[in-house]
């Protein structure tokens, strides 16, 4: 059985229980909620998770809880996207989880062009990383300007003289290419 912190699982579990309740259920060994986490997060087929959980009743629960608590706590933690290290601190109220997950789904399907199924099966971090890579690509190719900076007029003239796009950020491309090189 394989559990995956997919956007679908995050959306369902957060809506049904909330993150504090999920973590509390793990601390308190709440079998119904733990079972729900397993069923909803299972990516290898509902029957596999149901078969696994059907073997729990009639046996001592202590070994079961010992085996699943930490991996499930790690899984639930992965439902929460990692903060963007480039983001500037904001005094704005954080988005409700429902809105954040709806935004991730819209980003995956609208901006990245993923199918709905691919978006639902991706993890929140996969979507945010793919989106950031996409934005970096758009900036690198000059399609989008980061931080409202205009292209260097001298570089634009050199690009025109060379028959290139005048807005292409050649220095940005070279800087990006240089990131992957080892000294």
Describe the protein in words:
By secondary structure, this protein is mainly α. The chain folds into three domains: about 5-75, no CATH class; about 95-140; about 145-183, no CATH class. It contains ten helices and no strands. Helix 3 packs antiparallel against helix 4 (about 45-55) and helix 6 crosses helix 8. The protein is elongated, with a radius of gyration of 23 Å. The model has no long low-confidence stretch (mean pLDDT about 85).
In short:
The chain is mainly alpha-helical and 183 residues long. The chain has ten helices and no strands.
Radius of gyration: 23 Å
Please give the share of residues in helix: 55-70%
Number of strands: 0
Q: What gap, in angstroms, lies between the N and C termini?
A: 44 Å
Helix-strand makeup class: mainly alpha
The string of secondary-structure elements, in order, is HHHHHHHHHH
Q: Strand count, sense and closure of the main sheet? A: none
Query: What share of residues are in beta strands?
Result: under 5%
- Tell me the number of structural domains: 3
- Mean pLDDT reading: 83
Strand-helix topology:
Blueprint: H1 7-17, H2 19-27, H3 31-41, H4 46-54, H5 61-77, H6 97-111, H7 116-121, H8 124-140, H9 153-161, H10 170-179
Helix pairs in contact: 1-3, 1-6, 2-5, 3-4, 6-8
Give keywords.
single chain; 3 domains; mainly alpha; 183 residues; 62% helix
């Amino acid at each position: 059985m394989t559990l995956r912190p997919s956007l679908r699982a995050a959306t369902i579990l957060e809506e049904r229980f909330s993150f504090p309740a999920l973590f509390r259920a793990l601390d308190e060994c709440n079998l119904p909620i733990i079972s729900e986490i397993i069923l909803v997060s299972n990516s290898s087929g509902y029957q596999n998770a149901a078969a696994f959980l059907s073997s729990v009743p009639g046996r001592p629960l202590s070994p079961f809880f010992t085996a699943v608590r930490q991996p499930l706590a790690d899984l639930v933690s992965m439902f929460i996207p990692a903060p963007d290290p480039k983001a500037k601190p904001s005094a704005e109220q954080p988005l409700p989880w429902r809105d954040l997950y709806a935004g991730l789904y819209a980003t995956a399907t609208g901006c990245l062009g993923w199918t709905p199924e691919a978006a639902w099966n991706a993890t929140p971090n996969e979507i945010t990383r793919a989106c950031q890579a996409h934005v970096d690509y758009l900036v690198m190719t000059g399609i989008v300007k980061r931080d409202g900076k205009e292209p260097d007029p001298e570089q634009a003239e050199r690009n025109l003289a060379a028959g290139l796009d005048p807005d292409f950020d050649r220095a940005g491309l070279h800087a990006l290419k240089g990131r992957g090189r080892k000294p």
